[in-house]
Amino acid sequence: MSPTLAELAVGQEIGTRSIEVTRQDLVKYAGASGDFNPIHWNEAFATGVELPGVIAHGMFTMGSAVQLVSDWAGDPAAVVDYQTRFTKPVLVADTTGTGEPGAVIEVTGVVGALDADAGTARIDLTVVSAGLKVLMKSQAVVKLP
């Protein structure tokens, strides 16, 4: 059931999520998005351009993080605005064949503001991987009943 504006308070947590990421996920995302930049799948290329290793697509990280909000809202169309700043890359180790994730993205959502006139809640997301904030000012605006 979708939350209502009346039952929310600023500072209220809406939930948390851990997102396991593998190199295979990045290859699948590259195919779906058309972004085949080798920094997202080729270790030698990524380190050759002075990255610490293969990194997740920024839009993959952004989209994975906002899923917490759309699931909480009960309708992806309820998310009427979403913005963020990319601050650190998500480094994805090669764990092919081990069954282990190459990275984990931790997402926590908190009600940051309520606008009764507009019928919206701003959800502030904290998005961390390997102890580093990978997205800053990550905010989704949700239209609620």
Task: Write a concise synopsis of the structure shown.
With about 140 residues, this protein is an alpha+beta fold.
Oligomeric organization of the protein chains: single chain
Work out the strand percent: 35-45%
CA-based gyration radius: 17 Å
Q: Please provide the count of β strands.
A: 5
Describe what this molecule looks like in 3D:
- This protein is an alpha+beta fold.
- The chain is built from three helices and five strands; from the N terminus they run βαααββββ.
- The protein has a five-stranded antiparallel beta sheet with strand order 1-3-4-5-2.
- A hairpin with a 2-residue loop joins β4 and β5 (about 130-145).
- The N and C termini lie close together (about 10 Å).
Keywords:
single chain, 145 residues, alpha+beta, 5-stranded antiparallel β-sheet, 3 helices, 5 strands, 23% helix, 36% strand, elongated
List the helices and strands and how they pair.
Elements: E1 13-21, H1 23-33, H2 43-48, H3 58-73, E2 79-86, E3 103-115, E4 120-129, E5 132-143
Antiparallel strand pairs: 1-3, 2-5, 3-4, 4-5
